Amino acid sequence: MTIKDTTLAVAAGFAAAATFALTTPATAGGHGINLEGETVEWVIPFSETGGSAKWANFYAPLLSEALPGNPTVVVKFMPGAGSTKGANWFQEQEFEDSNGTLIFGSSGSTQFPYLLGDPRVRYEYNDWNVVLASGTGGVAYLPPDLAGMMNGMDATALQGTDFIYGSQGATRLDLVPLLAWEMLGLSVEPVFGIKGRGDGRLMFERGEANIDYQTSSSYLKGVTPLVEAGTAVPMMSWGALDADGNIVRDPTFPDMPTFKEVCDATPGCETSGEQWDAWKAFFIAGFPAQKMVFLPAGASNDAIVTYTAAFEAIKARGDFAEISAGRLGVYPQMTGDAATGALTSATNVPDSAKAFVTGWLADRYGVTLK
Amino acid sequence: MDILSVALPALSDAAGLIAQPIVLGYLVLGVVMGLCVGVFPGLGGIAGLSLLLPFMFGMDPILGLALMIGMVAVVPTSDTFASVLMGIPGSSASQATVLDGFPLAKKGQAARALSAAFSASLFGGLVGAAFLTVFILVARPIVLEFRTPELLMITLFGLSMVGILAGRVAIKGLVAAGLGMMIGTIGEGDSAGELRMATYDMPYLVDGFKLVIVGLGIFAIPEIVALLRQDRSISDRAPLGGGWATGVKDWFANKWLSVRCSIIGVVVGVIPGLGGSVVDWIAYGHTVQSTPDRSKFGSGEIRGVIGPESSNNAKEGGGLVPTLLFGIPGSGSMAIFIGAIALLGSGQIEVGPSMLKNNLDITYAIVWLLALANVVGTLICIAASGGIARLTTIPFALLAPFLFMIIAFAAFQSGQDIMDLVALFGIGLLGILMRRFDWSRPAFLIGFVLSNPAETYANQAVQIARSRFRKGFEEGIDYIFSPIVIVLIIITLISVVVGLRQAKTIMAEGAIKSGAKRAPLIFLLVILGYLIAANINAWMIPDYAAADRVFPWFVSTVAIVGGVILLVQMMLSSETHALFADREFGNSENNAYGLWSTLGWFAGLLILTSLLGFILALAIFLLAFIRLRAGKSWGFSAGYTAAGIAFMCFMAWLLNRDFPPGLLQQLGDLPWPLT
Q1: pLDDT tens across B161-214, in order?
Q2: How many domains does one find in chain B?
Q3: B322: helix, coil or strand?
Q4: Interface residue A317 vs chain B (CB under 8 A)
């Protein structure tokens, strides 16, 4: 983009917003909705620094181009109570009030309290209308000396080590790594109170924590330089789901073993049974469909069709693979039936898995969600 | 040297990058926007950068950086206007400037205070940029040495500043800080998620109080209400007075103080997580400690302006170190800065360790831009100061509703909840009473700001140390008592001892008469009551969540002991003792209006907002206030109201924010901005 274009774009942005402020919303009709002159608000229930912000900031300008009438798309941050506050707020919004100018971006941290029956949850995923589901993955890593103790994929030799892990809370996405490490027989003590996974990485870099995990995009940015410098070694990825629901190697990290492979190679870790099923259920809820875009309850079919088509158009861009790989990683971006399917698998955990995890949280961390 | 052979070409590349007219144009644009944001109390770098965010996507990286750095660098310079001229901290980084800057303005020496502040700001900003240049090369190993015990010690060092700011009765300062820390623990605990003094039935409390609300409530509201009750303009004299040259001379005479405070600013800014709100207090504390004659602090000591202003601009340079090198934001505005950089260009710039490898020229361009922005910002501030200073001659009854409007809007932006306004009112009332009875408000605020880091770092350090001790006694001791920790402990102890010795001579808020016993006693009993309730509340947290119990329980116990000692002292002392300081006694401030009727106006705005929504409530409030309280004609009132509403809508539209809705909005749909 040249300097002149940039200047024009800023000016045009101001002008477009000014026009909007002076005109009353137009009513939509026919097939699909026309959002010309409108401002679409994309509410993210987290702060400006997290992964969800990166994800929404990546999509927002593309969405503006792809929606009919090229509305201004702005990302609004509404952090609080680990996203529960924003989700509760969105639950109260009625479609008629916004007519397609309000969308909501949820994340794994919105899903887990919902699944675990957190008393603060007053939202219901089944009321909402999913138009996009984005997957991601995660990688666990170790300092080189500890990684060297592993016998191939067998983690048995690590069982005598005292691990420290900077955690955001056992009931959040950290549930997946904590349970995985416990299944491998590692004694990991989570140090709670960090504000984001970046703080966990810094704790690892300072040598205070000696095990950590990052989601794919943070791993690519923050940990890859450490691996290159020789101060961190990847241990395993959580893997990805294939079309049949099997856990396979993560396409972003094809050279890394998955947790399933490590578990198989480690005596005492079972890839079947109650514990494994619970882990897999929560992995599926937390990662392959981690971030989703919703229209509020009662959205018209026209609006759903319009947004679905817009996200499909974004995916069909010639340069999409190129621009998304660096910022989102290589993960499925699902729309239409695929998105609905992803929503179903992300928000329906078998009762047995739920009961196991609730019991485990209570026994291991004294957490009761009442 | 190897480092230099890499750095020097990058430095000249960087100079080439920014020495283009268009880049400088964007820098000036950023500076002007930062100036506008910084002048208004409560809006700081966070609001300003949020305003720029939507335009960053795909922008030429160097232009976007020029815009953002221009804004970030000038906020700590321009917020001086509000601090000095209105007695309200323009942003969290200039709270300490108020203590001496405002008294100087009241004396008619605003120009002197401003020019000294601008000189110090400029100098601090340049020192910050120079330090950043060097730090980028050497900081990585040093910052990586800061583990949790070191971070905890830095936090405790910040808390030790309470000693110097405690005021005439040291224990009162201690209890105030303890109360601030207890207010800071309200909500969900960071370690185990247990609630402290909150319930899930009131979701607002679960998240705790935001710094914006507490800062505005404790400092801005009491000052506005006090000025409003006196019913005159802020400054009786000619707006700025002479003395521009005097201010520069003042700064030059104190150049070594400025150097030391700039270094304090850089160093504290470098440490991630502490944020900017404590920098100015540490610098102020140092300034007081290093001044032979301390009698004038709080009533217009120019050194009290130079110290904090040197540090708060230098802090921005320091804050960029962890931001650029580790991708760890040192403050709220830096957090948004990181988000904005990711949007620039096609995302080729990534903050973090790779920055030094791949983008050394961009890194140094940021340093140069920072230095330039400080120079440009200072020049513009000086040029614009005449106009801005005229604000102080306007009768305060005309200024106050405007300020209430801005403060209410800023407070609402922190949580976008009508409860933000209720919290603002409640904490404002606490601030008014603390001011009245001479309880140290700075001590309260430091306690509040550092409550969360102190608790988190303490919990984490204990947990990690326990694991180290399990491995071996020596390893545990090595972990806790690193050389850096030992040095910090020594500095903290010296600071406490020196601070307590000197605190009695500092009248942070001027001399206050003592008279009757009843009112100060009741206030103390109410505070004690809250502390005891919080103590019992903390005690009831079950064992498995002990990490969330220890800190509030310990702090409230210490504060309760302090409160009981005060109670005993009150029983034994005579009515004229400093313990019974009461600004209301004998109407020592020449108030023309009562406290409750003045506060009633603000309460009225709040109640109307909950019924009609913010904009309609504001219209009624402004119209009624200007007509009835300021005594202007209906025509003038209507014009004022229209201008106020238009300004508010423009701000909200720029920031893409909504206004607080009321009951009316639940009944039906209204067009923006009434929604």
Answers
A1: 776 666 677 888 889 999 999 999 998 887 777 788 887 777 788 778 877 788
A2: 2
A3: helix
A4: no
